Amino acid sequence: MRDYCGVVGIYGNKNAAQLTYLALYALQHRGEESAGIVSFDGKKVSQQKGMGHVGEVFTETNLKKLKGHTAIGHVRYSTTGSSIAKNVQPLLINHKKGFIAVAHNGNLTNSVDLRNELEDAGSILQTTMDSELILHYLVKDHQNNYSGKILSIASRLEGAYSFVLMINDAIYALRDPYGFRPLCIGKIDGGYIVASETCALDMIQATYIRDIEPGEVVIIDRQGLRSMKQPQNRKHAFCIFEYIYFSRPDSNIYTQSVYLTRKNLGRTLAKEHPAQADFVMPIPDSGTYAAMGYAEESKLPLEMAFVRNHYIGRTFIQPSQLIRDFKVKVKLNPVRDVLKGKRIVIVEDSIVRGTTSRGRVRALRAAGAAEIHMRVSCPPLMWPCFYGIDFPTRKELIAANHTIEDIRKFIGVDSLAYLSLDGMLNSMLLSRDEFCTACFTGNYPTRINKPPSKKSLEKNRIPAAKKA
Ligand code: SF4
Asked: Is 184 annotated as catalytic?
């Protein structure tokens, strides 16, 4: 499972591109496939984009060329559109009224309809990304006022979007009416920053002002910061997975701390599913905070008996079976002297296919663990995400096709338990009604373009015996 994208926009700072670069560093976890920055100095637009990590795409030399007081940036994984250089964001176009650059986090659920409509009207789309559609609509709409254009186009978009746009000498930031993806605003030296997570603000010592509201369009230009609201008022559907796995623990998203929420999830998990054990350990890093909560609640010691190698990343290649066999140990090495003969509770943030967990459990057994009790800090993942998270198909989600007992056997643990849906929602610091939980329940908050029918999904059901 991979996350999707991170976006940044900076207005009113002579070092806009350098600050965007630092903010993208903080958001690297939201997309490791490509990175890009577009900047504007009042006369000239500059851009630097490429495949790879932020540290690989930008150099001292190319950053110096990104001049100006305004910049937007993007880090990406592909959820729609392929992983190719021309899909790297921000996308930039020139047209007779100036230029438009766009950075998008999310996934439009009516992109097939929008794409067909644009192509039928003669548009030639350059990329396979839904993010490009907004550019075409902006150029086609003949209103001169971009705020009005954006509001009218936003009313056509369905699904999840947090957009940051640079249009001539202004930044526009908008969030869908459900608020699926986070987006916040901060202040820096008389200028402004908008970013996916508050850790990007911390990175450049900006002061958090507030979140951009679901359905809000924020305009930042010479006149300062203004706001407009889309007319549609929807029930919020904040992605609960941002708290469980995706966002950085040092961020506040949807106004609340990811760190504290993850600890709450662990505490509730310990109340629902206690275990007789010698200690609790996390799968680092995303399971760490839930494991801390679990250990506190159950009054068991917390041990870091898996040590993570921080130097393995996107560039790790697996050219042969020999290297693939060592994959688990390359990322996480179990500490033999801590594990030997011990009964352990291992806290996972989630289980997707089960194969990664199985590899980790094998490594723990080989290191001498006597009993392994796995606790998962969310309910079973049963449904794919259509809002910008790269989940596998339902066919590949192990919990959609197997009982918990089948999964326990497949992973090879002595006991396995998941946090309940109520337990997860009650652990949130916001009201339980604020969240999207579709990947657990199948209750999608929006219409989905050509959703897979339950019947066709059932046809793909894998017999439990085969996997076990
Ligand atoms: S389906 Fe799951 S991952 Fe997707 S937006 Fe909803 S809660 Fe988040």
From this structure: no
427's tokens:
């652990």
How far, in Å, is the centroid of ligand 1 from the Cα of 280?
A: 28
Q: How far apart are CA 105 and CA 130, in angstroms?
A: 10
Decide which of 1.10.10.10, 3.60.20.10, 3.30.70.580, 3.40.120.10 is the CATH code for 5-234: 3.60.20.10
- Pairing of β 279-282 and β 343-348: parallel
103-132 pLDDT, tens per residue? 999 889 888 889 888 888 888 888 777 888
From the alpha carbon of 386, which atom of ligand 1 is closest?
A: 4
Pocket probe mutation, ligand 1, options 387, 434, 437, max atoms within 8 Å of Cβ: 387
Element (H, E) at 71: strand 70-76
Q: What is the token pair recorded at 249?
A: 């623990």
| Ligand 1 atom nearest 384 alpha carbon | 1
Contacts of 24 (CB under 8 A, 6+ apart): 6, 8, 35, 37, 54, 73, 74, 75, 200
- Count CB neighbours of 54 within 10 A: 25
Q: In whole angstroms, what separates CA 249 from the centre of its chain?
A: 13
> Which of 9, 464, 68 is CA-nearest to residue 194?
9
Residues 219/172, Cβ–Cβ less than 8 Å: yes
Reported as a single tens digit per residue, the pLDDT across 333-391 is 999 999 999 999 999 999 999 998 999 999 999 999 999 999 999 999 999 999 988 77
Q: Which of the listed residues 181, 240, 242, 446 should we mutate to test ligand 1's pocket, taking the one with most ligand atoms within 8 A of CB? A: 240
Q: What is the CATH number of domain 259-433+446-467?
A: 3.40.50.2020
